[in-house]
Amino acid sequence: MIFSALIFVAGIAFCSCELFPPSFEEYLKPIKSDPLFVNNVVPPGLNLTDSSTNYRPFRSYLKLTVPKLIEYHGYKAEIHHVTTKDGYILEIHRICGNEKFNSSRKYKPVVYLQHGILTSSIEWVLSGPGKGLGFLLADAGYDVWMGNSRGNTYSRNHKSLSPNYSDFWKFDWHQMGMYDLPASIDYVLSQTKRKKLIYVGFSQGTTSYFVMTSSRPEYNDKIEAMFALAPVAYCSHMYSPILKYLADYEFFLKPLFYLFLGFKGEFQPSNDFFRLFGSLLCHGASIFQPVCLNTFFLIVGYDWTEFDATLMPHILNHIPAGASIHQLTHFAQLISKGDFRQIDSGPKYDLQKISSKIFLYHSKNDWISSVSDVEKLSANLPNLQQRFLVSYDHFNHIDFLWSKHVKELLYDKVMKDMSQFVSG
């Protein structure tokens, strides 16, 4: 909580300006030539210059869980639980469809969505029908399953360990790739009686996938195709000044986290402070909303125009969703070391073992998943199908989830690419 408060103070100090805004002559440099690279144009009719937002009433469903939120919007939801090989009990959410969009398909393709760090399955449905990728896929006739990584709001149980003690939190995203994803994928395939599924990951949800398919390559055969939104593997060109500063002192991070967050090793989930902060200061009618936006923008990149600021109270009600400090430390080491390897200078991940078809989607103004790092990743993936750059130059890391026009700028393209793996 104190760590978040420090970022909050930074947001106050710079609420009227951008901290170290990227120079578009330096940061947004030309993209390297790549036969698999695609850069579309802004879809006609989109107004990407209007920074105004309409006030969004939020109290009616602010505190709903993901399954309740899905049902609130008229969709059917299911809750499933799976136990990993090392004993963590994970919760998976399923969108079974909407009566208004009954698909004529006899065969419902199965798609599995995996969230980023400090979030949960909420990220796929928070913006509602017509915008959230989970809803869009359900409307298109997909059988949508949304995972929750160990330690987040929905996956805080274990066969023998308690989240109140440090032993529960001795994991990072390596264990998510080695145990969480395999267990979840096997469960979904068993429930749906399929041999393969389509995988979509955002940020850390791509990192854990690269861990799984490089370290347990047999899982490549269970994936029709993988769609990576804001992929994160190499991080040496990450632009966020906050994250770069922390990475410079990554050898102090664990003691610092223990000092400020407690010795359990947990990055605490959203609590009353965040909910009050969101409901009072971050809604569209508040004069303090720029403070809230700077809290995000200092990390993910500045986009005053396209980011849907009306979602801020909802976001802070669900995020942070909980994590282990070792996840954050591991990412800090990737930034400082420059390669993709296990924590504390462990072995490198062999990306040449990833044989599944992969589509990468990235943007120029993403301060976490930089163009240079994605180019390096794409050069090391043996079965890369396409690397797609979002056409809007200011599209940042969280715009992949909560941009006003994320459907037109990104999801329409993702779903078009996905459709080639659907039959019947």
UniProtKB/TrEMBL annotation:
InterPro entries: AB_hydrolase_fold (IPR029058), AB_hydrolase_lipase (IPR006693), Lipase_euk (IPR025483)
Residues that span the membrane, as ranges: none
Gene3D superfamilies, per database record: alpha/beta hydrolase
Record-level Gene Ontology MF annotations: hydrolase activity
Record domain Partial AB-hydrolase lipase: where: 67-127
Entry annotation: catalytic residues: 203 (nucleophile), 366 (charge relay system), 397 (charge relay system)
Protein family: Belongs to the AB hydrolase superfamily. Lipase family.
Name of the protein in question: Lipase
Record key words, sorted: Glycoprotein, Hydrolase, Lipid degradation, Lipid metabolism, Signal
A GO biological-process term: lipid catabolic process
Keyword Lipid metabolism recorded: yes
Signal peptide per UniProt: 1-17
Top-level taxon: Eukaryota
